[in-house]
């Protein structure tokens, strides 16, 4: 049965959760409309209520005048409350249609046809992830999967939870969504930036991507208007985080520069003597032993951008944080380069964030692992230096690396289907 009589005399439309007074003229016209369409349930209920009311009217003559007047006043108040409820219900249905439309459902069908109710029912059956967050809406095509990200919100009429879209802070008329399986969209340098941008928006940030190599990938502003500079970095699943310390270290050696292996040997010897890699490179740059203008060796590199307020880099070049999608080896080392997460939008297995000033201070204090010199594919004479860092690293008692999935469970909606299903509770 779609309609149910409540203890207070009102009717409940179980399809949309609407409560209403049976004596309303509008609702009686609605019953006639449903009957013409072959649905007589509401009409039959209203007939039974009319018969009961007729009996009450006959009994009214046996009551005192004061009692009858009080009853009439109660009826007027009930009608006024019903008008308010109907107005609220109409506004709710309108708002709900907007929600469903933002989540990609067709809300153009008339209400009486059940189109809105079917869409609402589909959303209500999404399921839930650990942490009390709903599943995303997933629409899977041949090679792609669109995801629309969702959250819970209280229904203003019933007080019950309902699923609504997470709105894009850059445009609150739109839901936050992305499509997995596509090539790198034009806006991005590599595909995992698309995932990182969606994650930042889900965290509530307005996001700007200035496309400037000298500044962080994401210039964001939180809901209180506080700005942050957040860069992106893809990391392998599990194990230490291979933090990029320096990205342009070319050490002069007569008429040439040290090779990767030669620079590695130099750094290993000095680290064994108790020096840290940041001070080693700074000393080489300050004594004019490195190539590049403006002592670039001591400035270039993600970790170097975490050194705030010292003049190492300009203020607008400093990094506050790194956002790091985590991918398994099958994705990162796919033999088909076009299918790797830097070339195709792929759902990650995890998501982490690094506090960059904390990371810089931790490495300078000797908390990083043995520095590793790697080839710079963009410059054969200037190499990169990475520092493996434990995910449990702390600086001044605070964690440097944050597991965003544990701390913000709604971000699990971004994960690959297999990982997300393991986190599903119903």
Number of strands: 26
Share of residues in helices: 25-40%
Instruction: Classify the beta-strand content into a percent band.
Output: 15-25%
- How many distinct helices? 11
Low-confidence blocks of residues? 55-65
Distance between the first and last residues' Cα: 26 Å
* Average pLDDT figure: 85
What is the global morphology?
elongated
Counted up, domains total 3
- As a whole number of angstroms, the C-alpha radius of gyration is 31 Å
Major sheet details: 7 strands, mixed
Return the structural class. alpha+beta
Secondary structure layout:
Elements: E1 3-5, E2 11-13, E3 18-20, H1 25-36, H2 41-60, H3 65-102, H4 115-124, E4 128-129, E5 133-134, E6 137-140, E7 145-148, E8 150-154, E9 161-165, E10 167-168, E11 171-175, E12 177-180, H5 192-202, E13 206-208, E14 218-221, E15 227-232, E16 235-236, E17 241-249, E18 252-253, E19 256-257, H6 260-272, H7 277-286, E20 321-327, H8 329-332, E21 350-355, H9 356-364, E22 372-374, E23 383-389, E24 394-395, E25 398-399, E26 401-403, H10 404-407, H11 417-422
Parallel strand pairs: 15-20, 16-20
Antiparallel strand pairs: 1-2, 2-3, 4-5, 6-7, 7-12, 8-9, 10-11, 13-14, 14-15, 17-23, 18-19, 20-21, 21-26, 22-23, 24-25
Helix pairs in contact: 1-2
């Amino acid at each position: 049965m779609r309609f149910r009589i409540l203890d207070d005399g009102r009717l409940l439309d179980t399809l949309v959760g609407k409560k209403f007074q049976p004596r309303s003229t509008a609702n009686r016209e609605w019953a006639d409309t449903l009957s013409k369409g072959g649905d007589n349930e509401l009409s039959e209920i209203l007939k039974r209520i009319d018969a009961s009311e007729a009996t009450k009217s006959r009994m009214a003559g046996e009551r005192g005048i004061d009692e009858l007047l009080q009853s009439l006043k109660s009826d007027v108040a009930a009608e006024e409350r019903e008008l308010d409820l109907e107005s609220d219900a109409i506004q709710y249905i309108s708002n709900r249609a907007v929600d469903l439309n933002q989540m990609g459902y067709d809300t153009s069908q008339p209400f009486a046809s059940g189109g809105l109710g079917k869409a609402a029912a589909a959303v209500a059956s999404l399921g839930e992830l650990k942490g009390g967050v709903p599943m995303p809406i997933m629409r899977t095509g041949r090679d792609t999967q669109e995801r629309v990200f969702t959250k819970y919100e209280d229904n203003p009429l019933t007080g019950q939870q309902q699923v609504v879209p997470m709105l894009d802070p850059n445009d609150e008329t739109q839901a936050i969504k992305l499509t997995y399986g596509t090539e790198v969209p034009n806006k991005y340098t590599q595909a995992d930036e698309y995932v990182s941008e969606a994650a930042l928006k889900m965290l509530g940030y307005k996001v700007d991507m200035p496309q400037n190599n000298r500044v962080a990938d994401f210039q964001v502003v939180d809901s209180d208007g506080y700005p942050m500079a957040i860069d992106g970095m893809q990391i392998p699943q599990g194990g230490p985080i291979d933090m990029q310390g320096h990205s342009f270290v070319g050490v002069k050696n007569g008429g040439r520069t040290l090779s990767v292996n030669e620079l590695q040997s130099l750094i290993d010897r000095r680290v064994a003597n108790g020096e840290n890699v940041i001070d080693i490179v700074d000393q080489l740059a300050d004594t004019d032993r490195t190539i590049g203008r403006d002592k670039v060796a001591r400035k270039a590199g993600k970790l170097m951008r975490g050194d705030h307020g010292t003049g190492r880099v300009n203020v607008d070049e400093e990094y506050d944080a790194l956002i790091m999608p985590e991918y398994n080896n099958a994705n990162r080392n796919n033999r088909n380069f076009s299918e790797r997460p830097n070339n195709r939008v792929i759902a990650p297995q995890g998501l982490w964030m690094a506090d960059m000033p904390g990371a810089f201070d931790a490495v300078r204090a000797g908390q990083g692992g043995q520095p590793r010199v790697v080839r710079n594919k963009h410059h054969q004479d200037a190499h990169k230096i990475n520092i493996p860092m434990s995910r449990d690293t702390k600086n001044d008692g605070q964690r440097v690396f944050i597991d965003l999935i544990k701390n913000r469970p709604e971000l699990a909606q971004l994960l690959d289907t297999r990982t997300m299903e393991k986190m599903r509770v119903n």
